[in-house]
Write a structure and sequence with these properties.
The protein has 207 residues and is an all-alpha fold. Helix content is 59%, strand content 0%. Helix 1 packs across helix 7 (172-202), helix 2 packs antiparallel against helix 5 (129-149) and helix 4 runs antiparallel to helix 7. The longest helix is centred in the C-terminal third of the chain and has 31 residues, at 172-202.
Length: 207
């Protein structure tokens, strides 16, 4: 039931982020067909991994709130929305032409943020260090693989470690509660990312 509620909330969260967006003027770049296929598979694995993580009792044990937190400072939901004529369901509407490079750039910034957050969390005060490390390290590994193999701009500046530096304190319950809410937000974001990769793989945005 919790995962269903989070999935339903993804549409709501996407709609809440509607607003004016300024063009980033990014260079026109695109994934090759083979690379797009491989990256799509990796992103599907990430979604499955995060789903299993949230269904595990370790991270969210004793936390009764279903609150979702999206801390990543990106425009992924809007940047990765399909062109207006092809837009269906609860996907967001955009007033400009779909930019594959802009979408992927935002996705990579998301991954950088969550990688830094997980890495710093594992170095904070934990309730069960061995269990939490075993649970989150595979997620971190998938994210790092995606950043290495699927980025169009490997030299892009990243300030994610600075952004997450103040997230964790000395209370293991508070830390775990914050990470639980953050991973629920990451679950929502991975749904958005997988839809975006499916759209890119379809090639509809090039028509």
């Amino acid at each position: 039931m919790a995962i269903f509620n989070i999935y339903f909330s993804s549409c709501v969260l996407l709609l809440l982020t509607l607003g004016t967006r300024t063009s980033l003027g990014l260079p026109v770049r695109a994934l090759s067909t083979e690379k797009c296929r491989d990256c799509s598979s990796l992103f599907k694995n990430l979604l499955l991994n995060v789903t299993d993580l949230l269904n595990n009792d370790v991270l969210c044990y004793g936390i009764h709130s279903n609150k979702i937190v999206l801390r990543s400072k990106t425009d992924t939901a809007l940047a990765c929305a399909p062109n207006l004529a092809q837009n269906q369901g609860c996907m967001m509407q955009r007033n400009s032409t779909f930019s594959e490079s802009e979408c992927l750039s935002n996705i990579m910034k998301d991954l950088a943020h969550y990688a830094a957050a997980i890495k710093s969390y594992l170095s904070s005060q934990l309730r069960s260090p061995e269990e939490e490390d075993a649970l989150l390290s595979p997620t971190l590994g998938i994210i790092q693989s995606l950043r290495k193999n699927c980025s169009l701009m490997p030299d892009e500046e990243d300030s994610s470690e600075e952004d997450v530096a103040q997230l964790w304190g000395d209370n293991s319950f508070s830390n775990r509660q914050e990470m639980c809410k953050m991973m629920r937000g990451f679950y929502v974001r991975t749904i958005t990312i997988n839809r975006a990769l499916g759209y890119i793989a379809s090639g509809d945005h090039r028509e």
